[in-house]
Structure formats: structure tokens, C-alpha cells
Amino acid sequence: MANSTPYNDPVTLRLPLREKLAYGMGDFGSNLMLCIGTLYLLKFYTDILGLPAIYGGVIFLIAKFFTAFTDMLTGVLLDSRRNIGAKGKFRPFIFYASLPVALLAVANFLNSGFSLNAKTVLATVLFMLFGLFYSLMNCAYGAMVPAITKNPNERAQLAAWRQGGATLGLLLCTVGFVPIQVLFTARPEIGYLVAATVFATCGVFCMWWCYTGVKERYVEVVPDHHKPGIFKSFCAIFKNPPLLVLCLANLCTLAAFNIKLAIQVYYTQYVLHDIHLLSYMGFFSMGCILIGVLMVPAAVKRFGKKRVYLGGLLLWCLGDLLNYAWGSSSVSFVAFSCMAFFGTAFVNSLNWALVPDTVDYGEWKTGIRAEGSVYTGYTFSRKISAALAGLLPGIMLTQIGYIPNIEQSPAVLEGLRQLIFIYPCLLAMAAAIMMGAFYKLNEQLFMQIINEINMRKGKDVTFQPVMNAKIIKEV
After folding, report:
1. Strands 469-472 and 461-464, how do they pair?
2. CA-based nearest residue to 69, from 384, 385, 392, 362
3. What is the residue-wise DSSP string for 91-158?
4. Which among 160, 291, 347, 398 counts the fewest CB atoms within 10 Å?
């Protein structure tokens, strides 16, 4: 039943700390399950399954392209929901999809003992299924932000908490996976399986924490006669210039970041001759990311999102160039990696803070509010970049002559150095050019957009007692 109680201005509403923590735990949990594949699955394919590196790259390419399109379908599914229950529009997907994600994350590290072709097919199918359910879980998680708050500063803080959770998840995977895996030196395939099980179990618990700790306050219900179809929703995406620029920039930055993560295990083993250094490097570099994440809200408040984003890219490029020139020792590698990862903290945090702004821009420009489609249009670009990032190391490892578990030639070592430093640096530079020249959605325009959207809709707001959510209706 409608309630006439006045409501807080959604642009100034502050979120409680416990809710921000719960939201951050969502990306912590999802990254515990995702990063074990990003960091170690290619090495599992080459060193345990015995697949040629190019096969591993093709598996990543096929699976990521598949999940790029499942992301888009997930967005349409989210936007088409009309009968919103007490659990909300997005929250049910966060928890219930996490269970198959965890099971498939573990199954990806199974050594079947089949023939080479059978192993390849099975690995591809398992990774595709993992991506399918991960889309359902993670796209709902990201698309939920506009339903949580309309305050741009709170969105930036949620993005910082999200990036903090993602960084902790990546840190834990970097530091903790190998020590568990090497406990089983006689049966390394068992070590991979045990480590994956530990991380997947923790991931499910964190997703439950997020599911129970966040609230959807602004769930928009669009009348059926105004319901955007698939074609209309996708047209709304392509009429959203800030989203398109952000997608292209993210295509570069995520590919660069994933290439670094995939190659660093090879770099520490064969160039620096100390695979255990990966844990120490992860601890220091991820610690720098956490420091950067904590600085994001204050930096954004003072300089604005775009300037902070570009500053992060500059630090990233500088760290990679210094590492290529002088990163041949363990100490210098860790030091310059810390600089580069410190820069990525601002870039990756603001990627998530900028997406909700493009949702409002799209509604202002087209009249269609499609959180799911806008968010999954963005994640589509992320999956394409992840596909390319998975393919490129596999191709390059094969082309430079990498052979597992032997001393590598100088040509192979130089190829590894270029893969982990030069290619990511060039991609980060491309992202800086695109964002600097073409991204026009600043803080002043955003406030104008929010005010105009509110004027269009008026103040007809009803309350849903079970969810304590504001259901905004078109008038």
C-alpha cells in the first residue's frame, strides 16, 4: 500500500558502512572464483593437461566470446523482470548463481586423463559453462548499483569498495594458491584441485554475505506498454557515447591487466627463477592497489573521475616502462610492479563508478532506463578483451618457442618481458587517448542529467514495505 511519508533526496542519501562492506565482499567472492582461472588455468592447461599453449589461448577465446554474448542476454533478462519480490530485482541472481559458479571453478582444474582432443573439448565446455553462470551472478551484482543509490559520491565509494574486494580476492589468489598447490608435489594435479576447492568455497560464502547485506532502494517499474524490447534496449546502448567510449577504453585496460596476470607466473619462474616470488610480489603490489583504492573517493572529490582515471593510466604506463628497462632483478620487479598496480587501482575502481553514470545518461538521452542492458553492454566489452587477453599469451608463448618445464632460451625470455610489460603499456596508452579525447560526461553534466530525469518523472513515489524500496513509476 502506498505510503506518503517523505523520502530522503536520493542524490544525497548516505549508505551505511556495513552495506558498503557487504557490497565489496561480493567482488571479493567473485574474484576468488574468477582469478584462480585468470592466474593459473593457462599454466594448468600447458603443464598438467599437456595442451599446447595455443590450445589454451583458443579455449580462452571461445569461452570468453561465448560469455560475452551471454552477458548481453543476462542484461535483457534483468531488464525484463516485472514481478519483483521481496528478494529484489538483482539480488537473487547474486547468490543462487554462485553455487554452480563454484562447482565449475573447481571442475576446470580436473585432469580427466583423456586424449588430447577430448581434454581440449572438455576444458572448453567447462570454461564456457563457468562463464555462463558467472554472467548471471556478476552482471546482476554490477547492474544493482543504480538500484542501491543515486548519490554519485556514494557510487564512487561503492566502486572503491568493489575494487577493494576485487583486489583482496586477487591478492589472496596470488599469495595463497601456489603454497596450497605445491603441498602436493608428488601429485601436482591434486594440488590444483584442492587449492581451487578452497578458494571456491570461500567465494560462495562471500557472495552470501553480499546477498544478505545490500538493499535495492530504487527499483524502477516500467509499465508493460513502455517496456523496451531487445532491439530497442540495444539501440539505447549504441546511442550512449560515454558508454561506448568507456567500453573501448576498458577493452584495452582489461586486456592489458589480464595479459600481465597470465604471464607473471611464467616471468617469475623462468626470467627471475623464483616462482615463490609471485606470492611476495602479489602481497606488495596488491597492497599498493588497496592503498590506491582507499584514495579513490578523496581523489575523485577533488579532481573529478576523468582526471583521476587518466592519472592512474599514467602511473601504470610509467611502472611498466621502468620494469622493462630495469626490472631484471626480484627487487626492481616488485618495486616497479607496485607502481604500475598502484595506477591500476584508480583505473579499475573508476571503471565501475563510471558505468552507473552512463545508465542515467542513457535514460536522459533516450528515455529508456536499462540498467541490465547498459551494464552488460559494458561487460560485453570486458569479455571480448578477456578473450583477446587469453588468446594473445597462448599465441605468443607458442610463437616465441616456450616449452614447459625446461630452461628457456634468451629469445623466449625477451618474449616474456615484452608480453608482461610492453603490450600492456601500449594498451594502457590507447585507453588514455580515448578517455582523454572523447569521454565528455563530467560531474556538472551528470548533476544536470539527474535533475532533468527527476523533473520528468515528478515525485510520485510509493514504498514497498517488505523491501523498503522506492518504486519509481513513469507518469
Report:
1. antiparallel
2. 384
3. HHHHHHTHHHHHHHHHHTT------HHHHHHHHHHHHHHHHHHHHHHHHHHHHTHHHH---HHHHHHH
4. 291
Taken in order 300, 304, 305, 310, the sign of the CA dihedral is negative
| Cα→Cα distances 295→15, 52, 158, 161, 201, Å | 18, 42, 13, 11, 31
Q: Which residue has the cell 570454461?
A: 127
At residue 376, the pLDDT reads: 67
Place of cell 524500496: 469
For residues 81 and 202, give the distance between their C-alpha atoms in angstroms, rounded to a whole number.
30
The full set of domains in the chain, from first to last, is: 17-472 (1.20.1250.20)
C-alpha span between 292 and 314 (Å, rounded): 14
10-residue mean pLDDT series, the chain (475 residues): 42 82 94 89 89 88 84 73 73 89 95 88 94 89 83 82 86 87 88 95 95 83 52 64 89 86 85 80 77 85 90 96 91 90 88 81 76 70 74 82 85 92 94 93 82 70 40 39
- Report d(CA 416, CA 113) in Å as an integer: 30
Helical ranges in 182-304 per DSSP H: 188-213, 230-238, 241-266, 277-303
Q: What pLDDT, on a 0 to 100 scale, did the predictor assign at position 468? A: 44
Residue 342, pLDDT score: 92
Residue owning grid cell 558505468:
355
pLDDT at 234: 58
pLDDT at 194: 95
> How many angstroms separate the Cα of 195 from the Cα of each of 165, 205, 238, 266?
20, 16, 42, 19
What's the rounded Cα separation, in Å, for the pair 189 and 228?
49
User: Torsion over CA of 334, 339, 344 and 350, rounded to 10 degrees?
Assistant: 150
Q: What is the pLDDT of residue 18?
A: 93
